[in-house]
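Q: What residues go here?
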């Protein structure tokens, strides 16, 4: 059985790596083989504190892990400023790449990573876990069924988290040399990704940050942002996204169409690990006397035995096995999703830098 498992290595001991270490061992086709930090002591402490088995290899440098021929996939929960260096090197070492979001500081950097993956025949995937949840698949099914939502008119997506004072002093997400995209690359990546997902990954025509919704720190890092994405092709759609390090936790996604609407409050991380739901109103209108609705919103429940992060790992391991055993090419769909998300994130950042003038795509 062990020979059928894909060996994963984790490059870096960031907090999110704890979640992925568990996910790798929960997925039925993968196993955590090694971890690395810039110091052997930090890597050892990570393994001990998180109850990892003693059989896991521990490396005191990133290079050592990447030189291990037994490792097939590398997860990189590194600061965004380090993504190009280590993701490109991982690809050159013939490792499949699972890269934490945001994928890069800009699309130029991301293209360097993707080109390295293509030229070395390895799979690329970013860490947008929610895309792998069966609830997301069910929503997509209903969204593109003309009998339910119809043509999408409006999308509203938020991802916010109220951070403590020490976050704004010490966290890498507020450091220009570590994660220069700030909240836009962190929480905003989900909001942009949700809009693109709802539009079947068609890019908007125009992107505009809204002046009242933008807050920066003294280093110019965006801490809060609201933006409008406009679609003029075929059927006009307006999307509003909001991401912030100042507001109470929210992960809202609302999609309104010509026949119905779809709503959920936890699209990034479900309230419960083993079950998730969303509200579907289709078709719905007021009663004749306008004292209520003619139908109740339907609560659609989707159960899942495997957490979404483990499903993400399982998908990447499946693709890695297909490349190795069957000679399949890497799946271009996942890097394309990341690249389009990066393009829109870049456009919002550009609009902010231009005093919230519109940016045309």
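A:
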């Amino acid at each position: 059985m062990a020979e059928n498992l894909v060996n994963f290595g984790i490059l870096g001991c960031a907090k999110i790596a704890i979640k992925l270490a568990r996910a790798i061992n929960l997925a039925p086709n993968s196993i955590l083989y090694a971890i690395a930090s810039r110091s052997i002591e930090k890597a050892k402490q990570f393994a001990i504190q998180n109850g990892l088995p003693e059989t896991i290899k521990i490396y005191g440098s990133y290079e050592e892990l990447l030189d291990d021929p037994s490792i097939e996939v590398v997860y990189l929960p590194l600061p965004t400023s380090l993504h190009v260096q280590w993701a490109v090197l991982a690809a050159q070492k013939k490792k499949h790449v699972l890269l934490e979001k945001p994928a890069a500081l800009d699309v130029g950097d991301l293209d360097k990573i993707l080109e390295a993956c293509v030229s070395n025949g390895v799979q690329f995937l970013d860490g947008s876990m929610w895309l792998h949840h069966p609830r997301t698949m069910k929503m997509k099914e209903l969204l593109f069924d003309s009998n339910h939502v119809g043509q999408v008119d409006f999308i509203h997506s938020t991802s916010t988290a109220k951070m403590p004072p020490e976050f704004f002093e010490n966290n890498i997400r507020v450091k220009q040399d570590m994660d220069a995209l700030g909240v836009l690359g962190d929480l905003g990546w989900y909001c942009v990704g949700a809009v693109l997902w709802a539009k079947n990954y068609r890019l908007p025509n125009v992107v505009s940050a809204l002046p009242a919704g933008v807050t920066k720190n003294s280093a110019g890092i965006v801490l809060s942002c609201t933006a409008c994405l406009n679609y003029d092709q075929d059927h006009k759609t307006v999307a509003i996204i909001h991401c912030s390090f100042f507001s109470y936790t929210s992960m809202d996604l609302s999609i309104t169409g010509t026949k119905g609407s779809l709503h959920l409050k936890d699209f990034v991380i479900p309230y419960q690990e083993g079950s998730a739901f969303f509200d579907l109103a289709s078709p719905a209108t007021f009663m004749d006397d306008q004292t209520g609705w003619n139908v109740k919103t339907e609560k659609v429940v989707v159960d899942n035995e495997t957490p979404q992060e483990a499903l993400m790992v399982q998908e990447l391991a499946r693709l890695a096995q297909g490349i190795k055993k069957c000679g399949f090419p890497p799946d271009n769909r996942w890097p394309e999703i990341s690249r389009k998300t990066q393009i829109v994130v870049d456009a919002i950042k550009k609009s902010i830098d231009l005093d919230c003038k519109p940016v045309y795509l």
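A: Context that may help when evaluating the design: Residues 15 and 280 are 35 Å apart (CA to CA). The chain has eleven helices and 16 strands.
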